[in-house]
Amino acid sequence: MKFIHRLGYYLGGFAIGLVILAFFLSGKKTSCAYGPDARVLKNIRLKERAYSEEAKAEMERLQIDTASITGVLKKGDIDFGRSNTDLDSCKTYMVTGNSVSGELEMLFENCDSTATLQKIWKK
What we know:
Layout: H1 3-25, H2 36-46, E1 48-51, H3 53-62, H4 66-75, E2 77-84, E3 91-99, E4 102-110, E5 114-122
Parallel strand pairs: 1-5
Antiparallel strand pairs: 2-3, 3-4, 4-5
């Protein structure tokens, strides 16, 4: 069998596989959170969010709403160098990202059922 025939069979099977895959995954809420940043941010987004008194006061002072925080959690980055992931109970993560208010840095305490915003400040 010539190479061009083998390539045609391969590409035909590959295309059929993509169509079947698209059919099975079309109705589901699937996401591809493979990197460590994406997994942690998704974990924080899905949990119930709480805010410390210090964070609430700073949010009011900087006029930042929860929509800005959600936006940073969708497109932000985790600074693992400034995070404390060695804790047993609740790990702390430094989240940085841009929002309408400017560039924000947030310190989240990520526990089993809640993610608490401990501190927030503008860069």
